[in-house]
Amino acid sequence: MKPAPFEYHAPTSLADAVTLLARLENEGCDAKILAGGQSLMPMLAMRVARPDALVDLRQVPGLDHIRLQDGRIAIGAMASKRAAELSELVRERQPLFHAATRLVGHQQIRNRGSVGGSFAHADPASEYPAVALVLDMEMVATGPDGERVIPAAEFFVTYMTTALEPGEVLTEVRMPVLPPGTGWAIREITRRSGDLALAGVALTLRLKAGRCADARIAAFGIDATAVRLSEAEDALRGAVPTTESFARAGAVAAASLADPMSCIHASAEYRRHLVGTLLERALADAAARAH
Ligand SMILES: Cc1cc2nc3c(=O)[nH]c(=O)nc-3n(C[C@H](O)[C@H](O)[C@H](O)COP(=O)(O)OP(=O)(O)OC[C@H]3O[C@@H](n4cnc5c(N)ncnc54)[C@H](O)[C@@H]3O)c2cc1C
Predict the structure, then answer these.
(1) What are the boundaries of each domain within the chain?
(2) Distance of CA 198 to CAs 107, 206, 213, 266, Å?
(3) For 95-139, what is each residue's pLDDT tens digit?
(4) What is the pLDDT of residue 1?
(5) How close is the Cα of 7 to the center of ligand 1, in Å?
(6) Which fold has domain 183-290?
Protein backbone atom coordinates (compact mmCIF):
# COMPACT_ATOMS: atom_id res chain seq x y z
CA MET A 1 0.00 0.00 0.00
CA LYS A 2 1.28 3.47 -0.73
CA PRO A 3 -0.19 6.92 -0.26
CA ALA A 4 -1.95 8.87 -3.01
CA PRO A 5 0.25 11.72 -4.31
CA PHE A 6 0.51 14.84 -2.14
CA GLU A 7 2.53 18.07 -2.00
CA TYR A 8 5.06 18.16 0.83
CA HIS A 9 5.94 21.33 2.75
CA ALA A 10 8.42 21.65 5.60
CA PRO A 11 8.17 25.17 7.07
CA THR A 12 10.93 26.26 9.45
CA SER A 13 8.94 28.58 11.71
CA LEU A 14 5.49 28.53 13.29
CA ALA A 15 4.61 31.80 11.52
CA ASP A 16 5.51 30.23 8.16
CA ALA A 17 3.48 27.12 8.95
CA VAL A 18 0.40 29.17 9.86
CA THR A 19 0.75 31.38 6.76
CA LEU A 20 1.22 28.34 4.55
CA LEU A 21 -1.83 26.57 6.01
CA ALA A 22 -3.94 29.71 5.44
CA ARG A 23 -2.74 30.00 1.83
CA LEU A 24 -3.43 26.34 1.09
CA GLU A 25 -6.89 26.68 2.67
CA ASN A 26 -7.64 29.77 0.49
CA GLU A 27 -6.58 27.84 -2.59
CA GLY A 28 -9.08 25.09 -1.72
CA CYS A 29 -6.27 22.66 -1.02
CA ASP A 30 -6.95 20.00 1.61
CA ALA A 31 -3.81 20.25 3.75
CA LYS A 32 -2.95 18.08 6.75
CA ILE A 33 -0.39 18.73 9.43
CA LEU A 34 2.23 16.01 9.81
CA ALA A 35 3.71 15.58 13.30
CA GLY A 36 5.14 12.20 14.29
CA GLY A 37 3.24 10.38 11.54
CA GLN A 38 2.32 7.45 13.80
CA SER A 39 -1.37 7.75 12.95
CA LEU A 40 -1.29 9.85 9.80
CA MET A 41 1.21 7.76 7.83
CA PRO A 42 -0.77 4.51 8.17
CA MET A 43 -3.93 6.42 7.24
CA LEU A 44 -2.20 7.77 4.11
CA ALA A 45 -0.80 4.36 3.23
CA MET A 46 -4.25 2.79 3.53
CA ARG A 47 -5.73 5.78 1.69
CA VAL A 48 -8.16 6.42 4.52
CA ALA A 49 -6.79 9.97 4.30
CA ARG A 50 -5.97 11.53 0.92
CA PRO A 51 -4.89 15.12 1.59
CA ASP A 52 -3.60 17.29 -1.26
CA ALA A 53 -0.71 18.54 0.88
CA LEU A 54 1.20 17.73 4.05
CA VAL A 55 2.65 20.47 6.25
CA ASP A 56 5.40 18.85 8.27
CA LEU A 57 6.01 20.49 11.66
CA ARG A 58 9.22 18.64 12.45
CA GLN A 59 11.50 21.53 11.43
CA VAL A 60 9.50 24.14 13.33
CA PRO A 61 11.51 25.15 16.42
CA GLY A 62 10.04 25.97 19.81
CA LEU A 63 7.30 23.35 19.94
CA ASP A 64 9.00 20.64 21.99
CA HIS A 65 9.35 22.13 25.46
CA ILE A 66 8.26 20.48 28.70
CA ARG A 67 8.32 23.02 31.52
CA LEU A 68 6.66 24.44 34.59
CA GLN A 69 4.93 27.64 33.56
CA ASP A 70 2.77 29.78 35.89
CA GLY A 71 2.37 26.80 38.21
CA ARG A 72 1.16 24.49 35.43
CA ILE A 73 3.00 21.99 33.26
CA ALA A 74 3.22 23.15 29.65
CA ILE A 75 4.15 20.65 26.96
CA GLY A 76 4.89 21.75 23.40
CA ALA A 77 2.76 19.90 20.85
CA MET A 78 5.83 18.46 19.10
CA ALA A 79 7.44 17.07 22.26
CA SER A 80 7.57 13.33 21.79
CA LYS A 81 5.65 11.05 24.08
CA ARG A 82 8.96 9.46 24.99
CA ALA A 83 10.24 12.87 26.15
CA ALA A 84 7.13 13.22 28.34
CA GLU A 85 7.69 9.70 29.66
CA LEU A 86 11.31 10.51 30.55
CA SER A 87 10.54 13.93 32.03
CA GLU A 88 11.18 14.11 35.77
CA LEU A 89 8.79 17.07 35.97
CA VAL A 90 5.94 15.06 34.44
CA ARG A 91 6.72 11.91 36.42
CA GLU A 92 6.90 13.67 39.77
CA ARG A 93 4.33 16.44 39.42
CA GLN A 94 1.72 14.90 37.12
CA PRO A 95 1.89 11.12 37.59
CA LEU A 96 -1.51 10.51 35.95
CA PHE A 97 -0.34 12.04 32.65
CA HIS A 98 2.93 10.15 33.02
CA ALA A 99 1.18 6.81 33.54
CA ALA A 100 -1.13 7.49 30.59
CA THR A 101 1.87 8.24 28.38
CA ARG A 102 3.45 4.90 29.22
CA LEU A 103 0.28 3.14 28.06
CA VAL A 104 0.44 4.67 24.57
CA GLY A 105 1.58 2.11 22.02
CA HIS A 106 5.15 0.83 22.23
CA GLN A 107 8.38 2.70 22.87
CA GLN A 108 9.01 3.03 19.12
CA ILE A 109 5.62 4.74 18.73
CA ARG A 110 6.35 7.02 21.68
CA ASN A 111 9.79 7.91 20.26
CA ARG A 112 8.18 9.34 17.14
CA GLY A 113 4.60 10.18 18.14
CA SER A 114 4.13 13.69 19.45
CA VAL A 115 2.10 14.64 22.50
CA GLY A 116 0.08 17.14 20.45
CA GLY A 117 -0.57 14.59 17.70
CA SER A 118 -2.58 12.39 20.05
CA PHE A 119 -4.77 15.30 21.16
CA ALA A 120 -5.30 16.53 17.59
CA HIS A 121 -6.00 13.00 16.34
CA ALA A 122 -8.65 12.56 19.08
CA ASP A 123 -8.99 8.80 18.82
CA PRO A 124 -11.81 7.82 21.21
CA ALA A 125 -9.74 4.87 22.44
CA SER A 126 -6.72 7.04 23.24
CA GLU A 127 -5.68 7.60 26.85
CA TYR A 128 -4.87 11.32 26.53
CA PRO A 129 -8.35 12.77 25.87
CA ALA A 130 -9.72 11.06 29.01
CA VAL A 131 -6.81 12.35 31.08
CA ALA A 132 -7.38 15.83 29.59
CA LEU A 133 -10.99 15.77 30.83
CA VAL A 134 -9.98 14.55 34.29
CA LEU A 135 -7.25 17.18 34.66
CA ASP A 136 -9.19 20.01 33.01
CA MET A 137 -6.32 20.52 30.62
CA GLU A 138 -6.04 23.42 28.20
CA MET A 139 -5.10 23.22 24.52
CA VAL A 140 -3.34 26.15 22.91
CA ALA A 141 -4.14 26.64 19.22
CA THR A 142 -2.28 29.07 16.96
CA GLY A 143 -3.86 30.28 13.73
CA PRO A 144 -3.94 33.32 11.44
CA ASP A 145 -5.75 35.32 14.15
CA GLY A 146 -3.20 34.47 16.83
CA GLU A 147 -3.41 32.18 19.81
CA ARG A 148 -6.46 30.87 21.66
CA VAL A 149 -6.85 28.55 24.60
CA ILE A 150 -9.45 25.78 24.39
CA PRO A 151 -10.54 23.92 27.55
CA ALA A 152 -10.43 20.13 27.21
CA ALA A 153 -14.20 19.91 27.81
CA GLU A 154 -14.71 21.86 24.54
CA PHE A 155 -11.79 20.47 22.57
CA PHE A 156 -12.98 16.95 21.79
CA VAL A 157 -16.06 17.33 19.60
CA THR A 158 -16.76 13.84 18.30
CA TYR A 159 -15.02 10.86 16.69
CA MET A 160 -11.54 12.05 15.63
CA THR A 161 -12.81 15.61 15.51
CA THR A 162 -11.59 18.50 17.64
CA ALA A 163 -12.44 22.16 18.02
CA LEU A 164 -9.31 23.10 16.03
CA GLU A 165 -10.29 25.25 13.06
CA PRO A 166 -8.83 24.48 9.62
CA GLY A 167 -5.44 26.19 9.49
CA GLU A 168 -4.95 26.14 13.26
CA VAL A 169 -1.94 24.40 14.74
CA LEU A 170 -2.10 22.85 18.19
CA THR A 171 1.02 24.35 19.76
CA GLU A 172 0.91 23.48 23.46
CA VAL A 173 -1.07 21.55 26.06
CA ARG A 174 -1.26 22.69 29.68
CA MET A 175 -2.13 20.73 32.77
CA PRO A 176 -2.15 21.35 36.52
CA VAL A 177 0.37 19.69 38.78
CA LEU A 178 -1.30 17.06 40.93
CA PRO A 179 -2.13 18.57 44.34
CA PRO A 180 -0.34 16.72 47.19
CA GLY A 181 -2.43 13.91 48.69
CA THR A 182 -4.58 13.48 45.58
CA GLY A 183 -4.96 9.88 44.41
CA TRP A 184 -4.93 9.02 40.73
CA ALA A 185 -5.26 5.95 38.54
CA ILE A 186 -5.58 4.82 34.96
CA ARG A 187 -6.58 1.32 33.93
CA GLU A 188 -7.42 -0.12 30.53
CA ILE A 189 -8.06 -3.39 28.76
CA THR A 190 -6.30 -3.97 25.45
CA ARG A 191 -6.22 -7.05 23.25
CA ARG A 192 -2.42 -6.96 23.17
CA SER A 193 0.08 -4.86 25.05
CA GLY A 194 0.46 -1.51 23.24
CA ASP A 195 -2.88 -1.68 21.44
CA LEU A 196 -5.48 1.03 21.69
CA ALA A 197 -7.89 0.32 24.55
CA LEU A 198 -11.13 -1.61 24.25
CA ALA A 199 -12.13 0.38 27.30
CA GLY A 200 -10.36 2.33 30.00
CA VAL A 201 -10.86 4.74 32.87
CA ALA A 202 -8.72 7.55 34.26
CA LEU A 203 -9.39 9.42 37.47
CA THR A 204 -8.25 11.54 40.36
CA LEU A 205 -9.62 11.10 43.88
CA ARG A 206 -9.38 13.44 46.85
CA LEU A 207 -10.11 12.14 50.35
CA LYS A 208 -11.00 14.34 53.32
CA ALA A 209 -11.72 13.25 56.88
CA GLY A 210 -11.93 9.62 55.80
CA ARG A 211 -14.43 10.23 53.01
CA CYS A 212 -14.31 10.79 49.26
CA ALA A 213 -14.38 14.56 48.90
CA ASP A 214 -14.05 14.79 45.15
CA ALA A 215 -13.55 12.43 42.23
CA ARG A 216 -13.00 13.31 38.56
CA ILE A 217 -13.47 10.30 36.31
CA ALA A 218 -13.41 9.79 32.54
CA ALA A 219 -13.76 6.69 30.39
CA PHE A 220 -12.24 6.03 26.98
CA GLY A 221 -12.82 3.50 24.23
CA ILE A 222 -16.57 3.44 24.77
CA ASP A 223 -18.02 6.39 22.87
CA ALA A 224 -17.15 8.79 20.05
CA THR A 225 -15.02 10.79 22.49
CA ALA A 226 -13.78 10.26 26.02
CA VAL A 227 -16.62 10.89 28.48
CA ARG A 228 -16.82 12.16 32.06
CA LEU A 229 -18.60 9.69 34.35
CA SER A 230 -20.40 12.32 36.38
CA GLU A 231 -23.02 9.99 37.90
CA ALA A 232 -20.26 7.86 39.40
CA GLU A 233 -18.49 11.02 40.60
CA ASP A 234 -21.73 12.08 42.37
CA ALA A 235 -22.19 8.61 43.87
CA LEU A 236 -18.74 8.81 45.43
CA ARG A 237 -19.06 12.25 46.98
CA GLY A 238 -19.16 11.84 50.78
CA ALA A 239 -18.82 8.04 50.60
CA VAL A 240 -16.41 6.16 52.83
CA PRO A 241 -13.73 4.73 50.49
CA THR A 242 -14.41 1.02 50.82
CA THR A 243 -14.56 -1.93 48.42
CA GLU A 244 -18.36 -1.68 48.61
CA SER A 245 -18.58 2.02 47.75
CA PHE A 246 -16.12 1.54 44.88
CA ALA A 247 -18.17 -1.40 43.56
CA ARG A 248 -21.29 0.75 43.79
CA ALA A 249 -19.59 3.58 41.85
CA GLY A 250 -18.53 1.04 39.21
CA ALA A 251 -22.11 -0.19 38.88
CA VAL A 252 -23.42 3.38 38.64
CA ALA A 253 -20.83 4.17 35.94
CA ALA A 254 -21.69 1.07 33.92
CA ALA A 255 -25.42 1.81 34.13
CA SER A 256 -24.86 5.44 33.13
CA LEU A 257 -23.32 4.61 29.74
CA ALA A 258 -26.02 5.43 27.20
CA ASP A 259 -24.88 3.48 24.20
CA PRO A 260 -21.34 2.05 24.38
CA MET A 261 -19.54 1.34 21.10
CA SER A 262 -19.66 -2.17 19.73
CA CYS A 263 -17.17 -3.84 17.37
CA ILE A 264 -15.93 -7.32 16.51
CA HIS A 265 -13.52 -7.19 19.44
CA ALA A 266 -15.92 -6.08 22.16
CA SER A 267 -19.69 -5.81 22.31
CA ALA A 268 -21.44 -2.84 23.92
CA GLU A 269 -22.36 -4.98 26.93
CA TYR A 270 -18.77 -6.18 27.38
CA ARG A 271 -17.52 -2.58 27.25
CA ARG A 272 -20.15 -1.59 29.82
CA HIS A 273 -18.96 -4.41 32.08
CA LEU A 274 -15.32 -3.38 31.59
CA VAL A 275 -15.97 0.22 32.61
CA GLY A 276 -17.66 -0.88 35.85
CA THR A 277 -14.90 -3.31 36.78
CA LEU A 278 -12.02 -1.04 35.72
CA LEU A 279 -13.49 1.84 37.70
CA GLU A 280 -13.88 -0.26 40.82
CA ARG A 281 -10.22 -1.34 40.61
CA ALA A 282 -8.92 2.10 39.62
CA LEU A 283 -10.67 3.68 42.61
CA ALA A 284 -8.87 1.24 44.91
CA ASP A 285 -5.53 2.19 43.24
CA ALA A 286 -6.29 5.88 43.66
CA ALA A 287 -7.42 5.56 47.29
CA ALA A 288 -4.17 3.77 48.16
CA ARG A 289 -2.19 6.59 46.54
CA ALA A 290 -4.29 9.27 48.24
CA HIS A 291 -3.44 7.78 51.62
C1 LIG B 1 0.97 0.20 16.70
C2 LIG B 1 0.38 1.50 17.23
C3 LIG B 1 -0.14 1.50 18.51
C4 LIG B 1 -0.69 2.67 19.01
N5 LIG B 1 -1.22 2.64 20.28
C6 LIG B 1 -1.76 3.77 20.78
C7 LIG B 1 -2.30 3.78 22.11
O8 LIG B 1 -2.28 2.79 22.84
N9 LIG B 1 -2.85 4.95 22.54
C10 LIG B 1 -2.87 6.09 21.76
O11 LIG B 1 -3.37 7.12 22.20
N12 LIG B 1 -2.36 6.09 20.51
C13 LIG B 1 -1.81 4.99 20.02
N14 LIG B 1 -1.29 5.01 18.76
C15 LIG B 1 -1.31 6.29 17.98
C16 LIG B 1 -0.07 7.13 18.31
O17 LIG B 1 -0.13 7.49 19.66
C18 LIG B 1 0.13 8.42 17.49
O19 LIG B 1 1.39 8.89 17.83
C20 LIG B 1 -0.77 9.58 17.76
O21 LIG B 1 -2.07 9.17 17.59
C22 LIG B 1 -0.52 10.73 16.79
O23 LIG B 1 0.65 11.46 17.07
P24 LIG B 1 1.65 11.81 15.87
O25 LIG B 1 2.59 12.85 16.37
O26 LIG B 1 2.24 10.59 15.34
O27 LIG B 1 0.66 12.54 14.85
P28 LIG B 1 0.43 12.30 13.28
O29 LIG B 1 0.19 10.88 13.00
O30 LIG B 1 1.48 12.99 12.51
O31 LIG B 1 -0.94 13.12 13.11
C32 LIG B 1 -2.15 12.63 13.61
C33 LIG B 1 -3.28 13.62 13.30
O34 LIG B 1 -3.15 14.79 14.11
C35 LIG B 1 -2.96 15.97 13.30
N36 LIG B 1 -1.96 16.76 14.00
C37 LIG B 1 -0.79 16.29 14.50
N38 LIG B 1 -0.14 17.28 15.15
C39 LIG B 1 -0.92 18.38 15.06
C40 LIG B 1 -0.78 19.71 15.56
N41 LIG B 1 0.27 20.08 16.30
N42 LIG B 1 -1.78 20.59 15.29
C43 LIG B 1 -2.87 20.21 14.57
N44 LIG B 1 -3.05 18.98 14.08
C45 LIG B 1 -2.09 18.07 14.32
C46 LIG B 1 -2.52 15.45 11.94
O47 LIG B 1 -2.87 16.34 10.90
C48 LIG B 1 -3.27 14.13 11.86
O49 LIG B 1 -4.60 14.36 11.47
C50 LIG B 1 -0.71 3.86 18.23
C51 LIG B 1 -0.16 3.86 16.95
C52 LIG B 1 0.38 2.69 16.44
C53 LIG B 1 0.97 2.71 15.06
Answers:
(1) 7-56, 66-176, 183-290
(2) 20, 27, 30, 7
(3) 999 999 999 999 999 999 999 999 999 999 999 999 999 999 999
(4) 78
(5) 20
(6) Enolase-like; domain 1 (3.30.390)
List ligand 1's pocket residues with C-beta within 6 A.
32-40, 57, 77, 104-105, 109, 113-114, 116-118, 120-121, 123, 126-128, 164, 169-170, 194, 196
| Ligand 1 center–CA 267 separation, angstroms | 25
**Quick one: pLDDT band at residue 62, thresholds 50, 70, 90?**
very high
CATH (residue range 7-56): 3.30.43.10
What CA–CA distance (Å, rounded) separates 261 from 276? 15
Distance from Cα 36 to the centre of ligand 1, integer Å: 7
The dotted CATH code for 66-176 is 3.30.465.10
How sure is the predictor about 28, in pLDDT bands with cuts at 50, 70 and 90?
very high
Q: Whose CA is nearest to atom 5 of ligand 1?
A: 105
